[in-house]
Amino acid sequence: MLGFGNSPQETLVASLLVMTLVGFLGSGLMRWRGLARLTDLLMPAALLAAYWLTYNKVPTFPPVGAVNKVFYVIVVGTAIGFAAEIAAPRAVRLLALLQPVAAAFYVGSPRLGAASWEVALAAVAGMAIMAMVMWRGATGAEDDVKRGGVVAVLATGFAPIALLGASSSSFQLCLMFAAGCFGILIVHAAKPAFRFGGASSLGALGGLIAIADTVVLITRKADLIALAVLALCAVLPALSERICLKLGLSRPFPRLFVHAALAALPAAAAFAVAFVDYGSSFPV
Q1: Measured between alpha carbons, how far is 89 from 70 in angstroms, rounded to an integer?
Q2: Distance CA 62, CA 75 (A)
Q3: Cα distance between residue 185 and residue 142, in whole Å
Q4: What is the spatial distance between Cα 190 and Cα 164, in angstroms, rounded to a whole number?
Q5: What confidence tens digit (pLDDT) does each residue in 95-149 have?
Q6: 226 Cβ neighbours under 8 A, 6+ residues apart
Q7: Under a CB-based contact definition with an 8 Å cutoff, are residues 270 and 227 in contact?
Q8: CB-CB contact of 236 with 265 (8 Å)
């Protein structure tokens, strides 16, 4: 990973701060210039930046190895998603649903001969996560910020699972991506003007699912119970509208806070499950 400090911990913290600041400035500039449609590119750009900071390279093409394949899953997903958003908006959700399947079979291709059922299961799980994020709520700016928030929480919650899955690089990648997302979305907390469209769904969320595929299918040391708990991050936020209605919350910021809190609860529970499972062996 690109060095910013004297120790790995300092380097990681510095990278997180850089990602947050750049995300905040980029998102703020687009908001100021009224480039709402282009905000769809911010989250996949943050994931690509986090990838470069983690691995300090752009993989050669064609890529060799699952980690290198992830980079091109993000790039191709972003390009296809953004193009579809412009040319065929109705096709975006179908493409988003198919993307996790393609990513699972592409990243998990070395496992197809020995355990094809694992690849198929990863594809179905990825489809389910994508569907739960994309099909919840309406399509307004506030709902798009909510979708982005769920992706950020998923990245944060998956980071310790990746670390325990023998992938410290995926741990760093997910944390930096989550930091970038936080910087991007905080600009839209009070008055949302953010677009979570084709590029965000295929490039950012699809890329995150591909990262999870590398840990689940290739290292094969992921805590599956913790992963199942983490998946609830995409389920519980569906209750936010009902809770906000009962509490009489109408302003965007408190509504987004409730939504994010409901997403964060399963992420914290997933971390707790992983911590209990590994006990004193948990890496610090």
Answers
A1: 25
A2: 13
A3: 10
A4: 36
A5: 999 999 999 999 888 877 777 888 999 899 999 999 888 876 556 777 888 889 8
A6: 161, 164, 270, 271, 273, 274, 277
A7: yes
A8: yes
